[in-house]
Amino acid sequence: MIKKTMAKSEIFVKKNWVDILLILIIFLIGFSIRLINLRYGLQTDELKWIFRAKKFIWALYDLNPSGTMISNHPGVTTMYLTGFVYFLLPENLDILSYSRLPFCILGAATCSLIYLMGSSIFNRERGFLAAVMLTFEPFYIGITRIVHLDGLLSFFFTLTLYFFWLGITKKKTNLHCIFWDLTRLSCLD
Questions:
Q1: CB under 8 Å, gap of 24 or more: what pairs does 33-40 form?
Q2: Which stretches in the chain have pLDDT values below 50?
Q3: Verdict on whether the full-model pTM lies above 0.90
C-alpha cells in the first residue's frame, strides 16, 4: 500500500511539476509580501481579538467551556489561531507580529488556491493571472496581515468553492476521492 502511494506520488510530481512549482512560487511571494514590516501598524480590532483569544485559549486550557463565551461575535477560528500562538509563545516576544503569522500564511495560501481553482475551471494561464492579481492586490494584502476575520473568511470561502467545483465536475461519490483530488492525487477510476 505504501509503495503504491509512493509510486502514485512520483507520477503525480512528474506529471504536475509545473503546477507544483507555480503554487509554491505564488505562496512564497504572497507570504513574503505579507511579512514586510509585519510588526508595524495597528488596526484597533486586533487588540480586542488578541485579548479575546488569550481569554479563550486559557478557558480551553482550564476546561472551562463557559469561559469561552467572550463575545457574541462569531470569531472562534480567529480566537483559536491567535490563542494558539499566544499559548505557545513566551510573554516577552512581540505577540502582535506572531499573532499575525497564521493570517499571513492563510492569505498566501488563498492565492495558491485561486491558482488551483482558476486552472481547474479555465486553464493554467488564467489561473496564474488570477492568482498573481490577488497576490499583489493591496487591500487583500492589508486585510490578510491583521488579526481579523476577513482573511480567514476569504480562505475558507475559496476552499469551499474549490471543493464544490471538484465535487460537481469530478462526479465522484466518495468524499475521500474528492479530498485527494485537492492534491491532484486522483483515486483509481
A1: 33/135, 33/136, 33/141, 34/104, 34/107, 34/108, 34/141, 34/144, 34/145, 35/104, 38/97, 38/100, 38/101, 38/104, 38/145, 39/94, 39/96, 39/97
A2: 186, 188-189
A3: no
Q: Which residue in 113, 115, 106 sits closest to 143, CA to CA?
A: 106
Q: Where are the beta strands (DSSP E) in 12-169?
A: none
Packed helices 124-135 and 95-121: angle between N→C axes, nearest 10 degrees: 160
Distance CA 56, CA 52 (A): 6
Residue 127: predicted pLDDT: 93
Question: How wide is the angle at C-alpha 144 spanned by C-alphas 143 and 145, nearest 5°?
Answer: 95
- Please name the residue that has the C-alpha cell 502582535: 96
Instruction: Please give the single-letter amino acid code of residue 137.
Output: E
CA distance 91 to 67: 22
Q: Among residues of the chain, what percentage have pLDDT more than 90?
A: 36
Half-sphere exposure of 40 (CA within 13 A, CB side): 3
pLDDT digits 0-9 by tens, 52-73: 888 888 888 888 888 888 777 7
pLDDT, residue 189, reads 44
The rounded distance, in Å, linking the Cα atoms of 161 and 169 is 12
In terms of residues, how long is the chain? 189
